[in-house]
Design a protein that fits this description.
Helix content of chain B: 25-40%
Number of strands of chain B: 13
Low-confidence stretches of chain A: 1-6
CATH superfamily of the largest domain in chain B: Hypothetical protein af1403, domain 2
Strand content of chain B: 15-25%
Largest interface: A-B, 40 and 44 residues
Structural class of chain B: alpha/beta
Strand order of the largest sheet of chain B: 1-2-3-5-4
Strand content of chain A: 15-25%
Largest sheet of chain A: 2 strands, antiparallel
Order of helices and strands of chain A: HHEE
Structural class of chain A: alpha+beta
Number of domains of chain A: 1
Mean pLDDT of chain A: 83
Oligomer: heterodimer
Helix content of chain A: 40-55%
Mean pLDDT of chain B: 87
Shape of chain B: rod-shaped
Largest sheet of chain B: 5 strands, mixed, barrel
Radius of gyration of chain A: 19 Å
CATH class of the largest domain in chain B: Alpha Beta
Distance between the termini of chain A: 20 Å
Number of domains of chain B: 3
Low-confidence stretches of chain B: none
Number of helices of chain A: 2
Distance between the termini of chain B: 188 Å
Number of helices of chain B: 10
Order of helices and strands of chain B: HEEEHEEHEHEHEHEHEHHHEEE
CATH topology of the largest domain in chain B: Rossmann fold
CATH architecture of the largest domain in chain B: 3-Layer(aba) Sandwich
Strand order of the largest sheet of chain A: 1-2
Shape of chain A: elongated
């Protein structure tokens, strides 16, 4: 649980990317806005690719201590 | 066991047995004369006591016998039998001394009806879940496309867990797999599972839960047919994949889950996207992004062209209008020219300085002036007046 929350998780990042593509494909957008969206899209695309190639799945174990508090530890099964 | 009593002495009042003695003797005779036997009959007057013991009668057309099934024996059964049910009991015939009652101490009980007690219990629990709407297909939630935190509720040392971890980690490196260990079979397993599911409810940022077990006998599946377990699964705040049943045996846990998977590996596959597929999807989005921008700038250029055309068109039309106006003006100017008037026979008088002479007072005696007529000028002088 001590894991620092990223500003956007992968799902949110992809949602945003899809939204950008949809808006760019839509009709009412001036060139300036389109360029800005395009740049953000490219950046998100790059981040998403990086995440996918760099990450490695983590396995942890959820336990409770004597007071019933949750403990998350590395799992070595 | 009354061995010391002389049966023959009891033929007279002096040798009378006590009630205890005779019932004890009857019990000894019955227990010695009967090995445990299977008995078949119809259940009637069934009653489950607070203590957990079951009391009922077995009967057929012409006889009935009292039965007891103690809690330590009946706890292995999924459900109590109902009145009128045809059953087999495996029992030791005995005499219950306190009541002087011949009865069967039942150690096992099978229903002869289709599927037996297991089926009966299953149907009862299923009906209860259905009544609360927990089996409604509309309740099923879609699985998240790109899950991050996935809880795995299963035995920590089973093959099921190893399979899930192997498949999920290979397919989806962004996964964080949280093992919530619990026994999945045996006495009391349902309590442990309910507790584990309670822990799952307390996890932050969870996207998905998988509840699973490997192979096992049909009876071992029973844990997942407990109504309590099914309700705990239904109460999870995130979508659940159930991978506990067999191809042929669907458990209640499977029925309340959002998705049912035939094996733990299949559950892991259903839970996670494949990294390779997502990378392809990213490429596709990249292409759409580029096309979108190209189309957008193309449209802007087109609009500029159109605006330019409109602008020049307007200018041209305006110029054209001005040209017409000029031509009209020229015509009117022409008509007003004094030369045109002279053509009609009028003459214009001007003095030496070129001033136009319009009044009699401007013509004194002897004044030399010029007359402009249509084809030239004539020099003249005023004579008398």
């Amino acid at each position: 649980m001590a894991r620092a929350r990223e500003p956007l998780n992968f799902a949110q990042q992809l949602d945003r990317l899809e939204e950008i593509v949809r808006r760019l494909e839509g009709q009412d957008l001036d060139l300036d806005e389109a360029l800005k969206l395009f740049e953000e899209g490219i950046e998100r695309l790059r981040e998403a690719r990086e995440r996918l190639t760099a990450a490695e799945a983590q396995v942890k174990q959820v336990l409770t201590d004597h007071a019933g508090r949750l403990k998350v530890e590395d799992f070595d099964g | 066991m009354g061995q010391g009593l002389d049966l023959f002495a009891a033929v007279s009042t002096e040798g009378a047995w006590t009630v205890t003695q005779v019932t004890r003797r009857a019990r000894a005779v019955v227990e010695a004369g009967f090995p445990p036997v299977w008995v078949r009959g119809e259940v009637s007057g069934f009653k489950a006591w607070q203590s957990g013991h079951w009391y009922f009668a077995l009967r057929d057309r012409s006889a009935q016998i009292r039965c007891v099934m103690f809690q330590k024996d009946n706890r292995r059964l999924p459900a109590p039998p109902g009145d009128g049910m045809q059953v087999f009991v495996f029992a030791r015939p005995t005499v219950w001394e306190e009541k002087g009652e011949f009865r069967l101490t039942v150690v096992d009980l099978l229903s002869t009806e289709a599927g037996g007690l297991w089926q009966l219990a299953f149907e009862r629990a299923k009906a209860a879940l259905a009544k609360d709407g927990l089996l409604d297909p509309a309740r099923r939630r879609p699985l998240p496309r790109y899950p991050h935190r996935i809880a795995l509720v299963t035995s920590p040392d089973g093959a099921a867990l190893r399979d899930i971890i192997a498949v999920a980690a290979r397919r989806w490196p962004l996964a964080e797999l949280l093992v919530v260990p619990t026994r999945v079979q045996g006495d009391g397993a349902e309590d442990e599972i309910c507790a584990a599911l309670g822990l799952v409810c307390r996890l932050d940022g969870l996207d998905l839960a998988i509840i699973g077990r490997g192979g096992g006998s049909r009876e071992d599946l029973w844990t997942f047919n407990h109504e309590r377990v099914a309700r705990a699964v239904a109460a999870l705040p995130v979508p659940v994949i159930s991978a506990v049943g067999h191809e042929t045996d669907i458990t209640l846990c499977d029925l309340v889950a959002d998705v049912r998977a035939p094996t733990p590996s299949a559950a892991a596959e259903a839970a996670t996207p494949d990294r390779a597929d997502v990378l392809i999807e990213l490429d596709r989005l990249g292409a759409r992004l580029a096309r979108g921008l190209a189309a957008r700038s193309g449209r802007v250029a087109e609009r500029l062209d159109r605006s330019f055309d409109r602008l020049t068109g307007t200018l041209e039309r305006r110029l054209e209008r001005h040209r017409h106006q000029l031509a009209g003006l020229a015509g009117r100017l022409d008509a007003l020219s004094p030369l045109r008037i002279l053509e009609r026979g009028y003459a214009l008088a001007r003095d030496a300085e070129g001033r136009v002479l319009k009044r009699v007072a401007q013509f004194p005696e002897g004044l030399a002036f010029r007359l402009r007529v249509t084809d030239g000028e004539v020099a003249t002088r005023v004579e008398g007046s």
